[in-house]
Design goal:
The chain is 32% helix and 19% strand. The protein contains eight helices and 13 strands. Helix 2 (55-74) crosses helix 6 (165-188) and helix 5 packs parallel to helix 6 (165-188).
Amino acid sequence: MKKILLIVAITASLMGCKSFIPRQDLYEKVEFKDEKIVEGRNNIDLYEVEFPENYYERIEFFKAFELAGKKMLLENKSLNLLVSQELYASLEKFKRGEFLDDEELYIKTASDLDTFQRAEIDSSIDVAVTERGGSIQSYLNKQVYFWLTVTNKEGEFDGNKIYTELDKQRLMEEVRNERKEFFQVLNAMRLSLVVKIDDPYADHSKGERYWASKEIDLFNPTGISRELQSIEEPLYLENLDEKDIRELVAVRGDFATPILILESSRLKGYTVSDGEYVFYHGGDTLRGYYKGYDMRIRITETTLENLVIIEEGILLEDVLERTQVKARGIEEKKEVKKQRSLDWGIQ
């Protein structure tokens, strides 16, 4: 009799547990607002463009980027663009209305140039200038020639003319306005910008690798640069130590970006925590989170000219746009925020 009562009690207890749903279950079933994201295999394509090393080639790159962007707008195209940390840093400077590092010499008032800066200008600008007005005037003329070259008007340069600082400022403002227009184009595009970090352990603020520094941060066990952790755009981290990947996922909340992509020799797929994603790329062991959704990163090298003819696919930022997560009829209460990975603040 006691055995029968015990069995009945256990059965009743188990039946009562049916109303208990573990937290993990709340994240198992989901629907996405983007109709391209469906149950089954979903390839998320990132297109990588090469950013030139030479300054003048970079200026031409930005002009080609703007042209490609305008064509994409006309065709209402969207894509995921993988860019180098150097390109991202340049775009951030434009966003703040600043000039590039290579342009700093040509911004300074000519009378403030020191001996080393003058020598650097001489090594870069080979053009005949007037000797009237002394050395300060000659370096001012060279600075004006530089900005005329940037604006594709070097043919208008007259080496015998006495240029002024106001002439230089007008050319600089022209460059600034061109870059503002460039960002107006970028703002209008549906573009998920992903920043590629080839050395995540480097501390660019100090010019050294993390482990080469004696200032070890006990609250940053992975050694990933704090500078990188503050970037809000999606990040693709290369050359990670495999042993650091688990540690990095454990401190996922330290990163400002809602999307991390980690190069791994072991893993592929994705995981999710509190609506924030970690994608894995390069390995064979599949990771997944939402039931029925197999999402994988693919990376393809391309050119700015070819961006226009690329077939449109899943926009990376659209994985953040999901309907309320449900499990067995229970709806997740946490609000799903709308996020945009590219927002330069240009009106």
